[in-house]
Amino acid sequence: MSPVDLSTMLAGIKLRNPVLTCSGTYGFGEEYAAYCPLEALGGITLKGITPLPRLGNSVPRLAETPAGLLNAVGLENPGLEQFIISYLPKVREMPTAVIANISGFSLEDYVQMAEAFQVNSGLAALEVNISCPNVKHGGMHFGTDPGSAEEVIAAVKAATDLPIIAKLSPNVTDIVGMARAAQRGGADALSLINTLLGMSIDIEQQRPLLANTFGGLSGPAIRPVAVRMVWQVAEAVDLPIIGMGGITTWQDAVEFFLAGATAISIGTGNFVNPQAPLEILQGIKGYCEKHGLPSVRNLVGLAHKA
Amino acid sequence: MSPVDLSTMLAGIKLRNPVLTCSGTYGFGEEYAAYCPLEALGGITLKGITPLPRLGNSVPRLAETPAGLLNAVGLENPGLEQFIISYLPKVREMPTAVIANISGFSLEDYVQMAEAFQVNSGLAALEVNISCPNVKHGGMHFGTDPGSAEEVIAAVKAATDLPIIAKLSPNVTDIVGMARAAQRGGADALSLINTLLGMSIDIEQQRPLLANTFGGLSGPAIRPVAVRMVWQVAEAVDLPIIGMGGITTWQDAVEFFLAGATAISIGTGNFVNPQAPLEILQGIKGYCEKHGLPSVRNLVGLAHKA
Amino acid sequence: MLTEGLVVVHEGLGEEQQMLRRLVLKGPIAKTAKPGQFVAVQVQASSIPSYDPLLRRPLSIAEISPDRDEITLLYRIQGRGTEILARVRCGEKLSVMGPLGNGFSLPEVGELWLVAGGIGIFPLYALAQNALAHGLIVRLFWGGENALFIKNAGLAAWQALGIPIHLSTLDGILGDKGLVTEQVQGRLSQLFGQTRQTDLLGPRQISVATCGPKKMLQAVTKLCMHFAVPVQVSLEERMGCAVGACLGCVCTLIDETGTLIHRKVCQDGPVFRGEEVVWDESC
Amino acid sequence: MLTEGLVVVHEGLGEEQQMLRRLVLKGPIAKTAKPGQFVAVQVQASSIPSYDPLLRRPLSIAEISPDRDEITLLYRIQGRGTEILARVRCGEKLSVMGPLGNGFSLPEVGELWLVAGGIGIFPLYALAQNALAHGLIVRLFWGGENALFIKNAGLAAWQALGIPIHLSTLDGILGDKGLVTEQVQGRLSQLFGQTRQTDLLGPRQISVATCGPKKMLQAVTKLCMHFAVPVQVSLEERMGCAVGACLGCVCTLIDETGTLIHRKVCQDGPVFRGEEVVWDESC
Ligand SMILES: Cc1cc2nc3c(=O)[nH]c(=O)nc-3n(C[C@H](O)[C@H](O)[C@H](O)COP(=O)(O)OP(=O)(O)OC[C@H]3O[C@@H](n4cnc5c(N)ncnc54)[C@H](O)[C@@H]3O)c2cc1C
Ligand SMILES: Cc1cc2nc3c(=O)[nH]c(=O)nc-3n(C[C@H](O)[C@H](O)[C@H](O)COP(=O)(O)OP(=O)(O)OC[C@H]3O[C@@H](n4cnc5c(N)ncnc54)[C@H](O)[C@@H]3O)c2cc1C
Ligand SMILES: Cc1cc2nc3c(=O)[nH]c(=O)nc-3n(C[C@H](O)[C@H](O)[C@H](O)COP(=O)(O)O)c2cc1C
Ligand SMILES: Cc1cc2nc3c(=O)[nH]c(=O)nc-3n(C[C@H](O)[C@H](O)[C@H](O)COP(=O)(O)O)c2cc1C
Ligand code: FES
Ligand code: FES
């Protein structure tokens, strides 16, 4: 039997394989290089950036929960200018597809950043985070109102020639409605899901554990919600989906493919096992072989046909 | 030091203590009696009932997830008539406060059931489940649209002289908006939270694990989301809250009190440890002693003052 | 009853690749347990504060020693829960709920046929011991994948009971080639030919108790009903509470009036009368 | 580097009620580790497929034996993670990331004062061994809750180094009564009076390395800055990735230009120059 074809297409981007890493969990790519060679990955998504530099929230920024992690980093990042000067030049040298992730607090913010990133930058795509729940009000508004979501995606789409990936918030009543809005706005792909808004309280101190009170819940705990949203959106919207939310093993990854994801992305799972992307890639390959599938693309949405 | 006062008031109901059990996880009260004497509990909430008998969904109805449980029982219940004949008479003999839980698929359903339950029934209160995510369409609509939520609560309130507890769905963009709607409708208290809509896929069978495809996620995994919603609602709405969602230990329970819950309810935690309610009660007592609090009522919302 | 079971024996059952384990727990459960009942075990030593895996695992009681206050559980490492359970060491304590459900009921008289498929053999051992103690004639029909499995899954212990044993394997290297149901059918037709069992409650009455894959239980039930042989089946279903409180584990039965009703495997079962079970998956 | 560390020693450190443990892991980490660096350990044996607790636990490297390929971790059972870690047995393997972060840097010459608060003593032992090996004079100031704690937390091993040790306890039963900072202050004023340290990089230069509660680190830094004594502090913060990828563990520094900047404890630290750290909680 000929080897399984792991390559895939996402929003016009040819990916070596469908295993990506999540924004905010993989720094700017180098941090994990010693554990997981970049050339093995389908691609990486960079930490979210904003027009101006941000110090983010105070510590504690992290709290462990049952099978989950709360984070309230608050979009700490060097800002657009510093990013362009000290990081963007390196992107071309990166041995994998690099996706930038942008966040903003106004339509102008998003447009300004989108304009700064074009195909000639070497970036593979632009992921638009309209859903970071950490920053008070931040992004939230765009991520929960279909109208504004459509508006911001349309504005970004008009401002760059890069493929646009709309990253949706799970903290909504109707995820399909949000996905449709992103599609109307011209999104080329969707990332599902961002973190669930949560919090935890230090019962000895009798105050919220995170300095920011609220944080985004990630990790295995949210996987059932993420799989459900990928499934619902895959049924209703004809856009490629990057599935994420609690993926830690290859079995988790396969669940997302079967639910309708074209590619998957690993976030918190890297913290648990910095070699998770490699092991997941191997596992996907083995699964396809076992089930006689010539390409990982054959997996996408398979469970809907059952 | 005088012993900690565990009694509390909830929507005009005097409770022996603030530890309740969740609808659908505690049957009709007797099932767990051998593990946890009913007279030790502040109260129990009965399995949700509907006007007509329901066989519910096919099996599998349950799927375990990381620190969580998916269920799709589909509101199996004997129906209003059978319930009134074979169960209601026993309520008076129950050595604890008994809260009935009603679900419906139309305004009329809810009204019909509310009319059937009055103070003279011996019930302590009526919990209105506008949020059961298991039944396709069922309840969902009421639970996610503020207008309909207000309408159904108002109709139920008008139909019975029992205190009304509105049980809210977490699968909404704006939980505070839903809580306010319930308050406008005349709810005397709120139950937060019902299950998060999720699913999981059997990767060998390549089809959804639950016969119903979707299920409600409960257990420790959802606790951070539940605590967050209790916190947000406690800040905005002046109604007593029954906090639930992943409570398994007394530390979990204390977290909910500090977040603003007047009482707490244990669901999936009973499956893990059928004596959880007893141990939690002891733990709350010990915590109050350690912190020099004369009554468990002193705990409510304490973390907001920090 | 919720108790802390002390692990006194925890060993491999047969060769490793069979992934079978024998777990003996010391505790009061042994005093009241009946064949066919089960326990709900926490898979990690009670001292470990972990929520993953979250739920208890239902395991049948394979042997009951009230004198030594010991129950024996036999299980196959199936997934995460049993994998973690298999790491528990002697001397550690496991939180156990049980005995749970209703076990098998013994016929007053006659011959009790035990029909097992694969690891469905486990709960039948306690029943065999009990039936023999009550002076019943016991006969075992056991089908397994191959000789290796059957040898590892406790054949010797069964032979020690000195009862007639009819084995079936897919490859036929041990016992007959084929399904266990074929042997049962063969023997039933031999006995009754075209007729049906008549001397019910007579000294030669035959009744069946069976445990194994659903398809097999269904086939055995069909056979027994055909020959008017009473049959008890032990069902499995995913469980939440294990005490009848969550309605997670229902099975569908058809009552006298012919209406479909749900019963809880954990509380009303796991043992049911074969003829009342509706086997259709979609119920 | 991600490796499977073989547990060769895992024992209580001192009396049980102190909840201290000594864990020796065999693996390649010992070859490259430096004093002050740490590892991120999975608290359950790698063979257990559980997601709760989810994250690795950062633990300092207390002793480094490159010859035997062993590193020693000393830890206090603090919560769920360390409680579960404490159950791991010899012969089991733990998934370990490390060595992580930047350790302490040794002064070329002079006297190295180690100032420890409570279990802040742990990472300093490897540093002391290293400094002595490089011919530096080493002096320990160690403050603990009481005599019992200090004896249990490894005093004997420190005495075996044959270095001057100044102890402080809250009850004064062992060493001076009071805070360790008071002893440091006393000795510094004794040496420099109203003046400040002048012969920097001279053979008698004093430099300080400190680890312990944040409040103590802050006080020690204030003292050292007052007397112009270089000071290295080892910080702690909750960690996600432990490699600099998640920005979960930042601390606030003030750079030459006087602007506040964030650095990652896991990657840029855990050791920083005391004078650059901004101690205000709200940063
Ligand atoms: C009444 C009863 C008695 C049983 N007796 C035995 C026995 O004596 N020996 C034995 O080896 N097995 C027995 N089983 C099956 C046993 O419970 C499952 O093999 C076990 O729960 C698998 O757990 P896992 O985590 O290893 O597998 P996983 O597949 O990882 O389990 C995932 C979830 O599905 C549930 N699950 C998976 N398979 C089954 C199943 N067949 N039945 C019920 N729940 C399941 C688990 O409990 C868990 O909640 C019995 C089941 C029931 C209902
Ligand atoms: C660089 C570094 C080196 C350390 N070296 C040692 C050492 O040598 N010996 C030792 O006993 N302890 C050390 N600690 C502290 C140790 O990491 C915590 O005690 C441990 O993580 C507590 O985990 P837990 O699950 O038992 O406690 P829990 O309170 O249940 O942990 C809950 C969460 O908070 C985190 N957490 C809790 N306390 C701390 C803390 N003080 N620092 C960082 N994260 C924390 C845990 O990692 C976990 O994610 C070090 C911490 C850091 C950052
Ligand atoms: C520490 C941390 C920081 C994150 N930062 C960002 C971010 O800057 N932009 C963004 O779109 N998502 C961010 N996320 C969300 C992740 O990209 C991902 O959507 C989410 O964590 C779910 O995946 P996981 O469960 O695999 O972690 C962050 C997540 C974590 C844990
Ligand atoms: C098996 C099961 C059945 C449930 N049935 C109902 C129900 O009938 N009505 C209802 O309002 N909530 C129902 N719930 C939701 C619980 O009452 C509770 O809100 C939820 O499980 C969160 O609490 P927990 O995490 O402690 O279980 C059910 C939950 C489970 C697990
Ligand atoms: S498992 Fe809950 S009713 Fe059977
Ligand atoms: S823990 Fe992730 S950056 Fe330090």
Q: For the CA atoms, what is the radius of gyration of chain C?
A: 19 Å
Task: Label the overall shape of chain C.
Answer: globular
Strand elements of chain A, count: 16
Distance from first to last alpha carbon of chain A: 26 Å
Averaging pLDDT over every residue of chain A, what do you get?
Answer: 94
Write up this protein.
- The complex is a heterotetramer, with two copies of chain A (306 residues) and two copies of chain C (283 residues).
- Chain A contains ten helices and 16 strands.
- Chain A has 306 residues and is an alpha/beta fold.
- In chain A, strand 1 and strand 2 (13-15) form a beta hairpin.
- The two termini of chain A are 26 Å apart.
- With 283 residues, chain C is α/β, with parallel strands linked by helices.
- Helices cover 21% and strands 31% of the residues of chain C.
- Chain C is built from seven helices and 16 strands.
- Chain C has helices at 29-32, 80-85, 122-133, 147-152, 155-160, 180-192, 214-226; strands at 2-12, 20-26, 38-41, 57-60, 63-65, 70-76, 93-100, 111-117, 137-144, 165-169, 176-177, 206-211, 231-234, 250-254, 260-264, 271-273.
- In chain C, the strands form three sheets. In chain C, strands 4-3-7-1-2-6-5 form a seven-stranded antiparallel β-sheet. A seven-stranded mixed β-sheet of chain C has the order 11-10-9-8-12-13-16, sandwiched between helices. Chain C has a two-stranded antiparallel sheet with strand order 14-15.
- Chain C is globular and about 60 Å long.
- Chain C starts with a strand and ends in a 10-residue tail after the last strand.
- The chains are: A alpha/beta (306), C alpha/beta (283).
- Chains in contact: A-B, A-D, B-C, C-D.
- One flavin mononucleotide sits between chains B (22-25, 47-48, 69, 71, 73, 75, 101, 129, 132, 167, 194-195, 218-219, 222, 244-247, 266-269) and C (240, 246, 248).
